[in-house]
Amino acid sequence: MALLEVDGLSVAFTTYTGRFSQTSVPVLHNMTLDLSRGEIVAVIGSSGSGKSLLAHAILGILPGNAAVSGDIRYDGELLTQQRQEALRGAEISLVPQAVSYLDPLMRAGAQVRTAVRGGDPVAEQRKAFERYRLPEHAERFYPHQLSGGMARRVLVSMATVSGARLLIADEPTPGLDPDIVRETVTQLRELADSGTAVLLISHDLESALQVADRVAVFYAGTTVEIAQASDFTAGGSRLRHPYSKALWRALPQNEFEPIPGAQPQPGSLPPGCVFAPRCTLATDDCTAERPAMKELRGGKVRCIHAT
Ligand SMILES: Nc1ncnc2c1ncn2[C@@H]1O[C@H](COP(=O)(O)OP(=O)(O)OP(=O)(O)O)[C@@H](O)[C@H]1O
Ligand code: NI
């Protein structure tokens, strides 16, 4: 059984359009995802596709103006707000997207110690620093004294000393040099191999594919495909959704063939399939209704033309 199951998750934000009028803007719609122990699922999508919001919905840290519907199950049971609060930082842990998440007024070592659940905080912190190759004296540094790469490793240390069973890493490698990227994703792989379920959120399909078992492709607030990592091969013919194929082909080592157009904004989604305006396969049927997620060749796809 999957440790985490996200089924039909939708999130809308209430925003004020004037002094007395408000509208509801849907930002996630009908998201589907599952994740098992020992598995890395990479969540791939361009900026604004809803990756961080999915993470925040699972953790229960969406802002107050968010309306959430659909089911999130953890370990077979609905993840209610009460359970989210109990599990957050303990069983479910986040490596946040921004290093500004670190407390600027607290030394790095002390911050990591506050996250320790079980065992001696100092010993656990030092073990984590050693594991993530942080020099011992870095425990006395304040966040502004850490390099970008070191700060990221402190965040990974914080997320792992809790002994989490579900780790959500939101863009853990932005702008890092290739060696550190490889090191970071390898650490996530090691955690997964020891039984942790890892959700790896990333723009970077290439580095995610080094370690992921499966890939969830996001577009304009929904899951358009869930593929095996091994489906990303050759010309992309094993991929199921035209957008996944386009992402794959746009990589420099493939055909480097970008597609025209841009991802639609949450407030102005096209009718029917959200990818239709950019899709070479699109027909009139595509604009009739939002395509349902269907099982196909050991994966899932939201496209009526997928074969
Ligand atoms: N508090 C909010 N109120 C209104 N809209 C929001 C809010 N937070 C996020 N959004 C919108 O929701 C959409 C998805 O945002 P999200 O942060 O999940 O994207 P992302 O895929 O993580 O992007 P990135 O790769 O840049 O981190 C964006 O269009 C964003 O503008
Ligand atoms: Ni994000």
UniProtKB/TrEMBL annotation:
GO terms for molecular function: ABC-type nickel transporter activity; ATP binding; ATP hydrolysis activity. It catalyses: Ni(2+)(out) + ATP + H2O = Ni(2+)(in) + ADP + phosphate + H(+). InterPro entries: AAA+_ATPase, ABC_Ni/Peptide_Import, ABC_transporter-like_ATP-bd, ABC_transporter-like_CS, Oligopep_ABC_C, P-loop_NTPase. SUPFAM superfamilies: P-loop containing nucleoside triphosphate hydrolases. It is an enzyme of class 7 (translocase). CDD domains: ABC_NikE_OppD_transporters. SMART domains: AAA. It is a peripheral membrane protein. Pfam families: ABC_tran, oligo_HPY. GO terms for cellular component: plasma membrane. GO terms for biological process: peptide transport. Its EC number is 7.2.2.11. It is found in: Cell membrane. The complex is composed of two ATP-binding proteins (NikD and NikE), two transmembrane proteins (NikB and NikC) and a solute-binding protein (NikA). This is Nickel import system ATP-binding protein NikD.
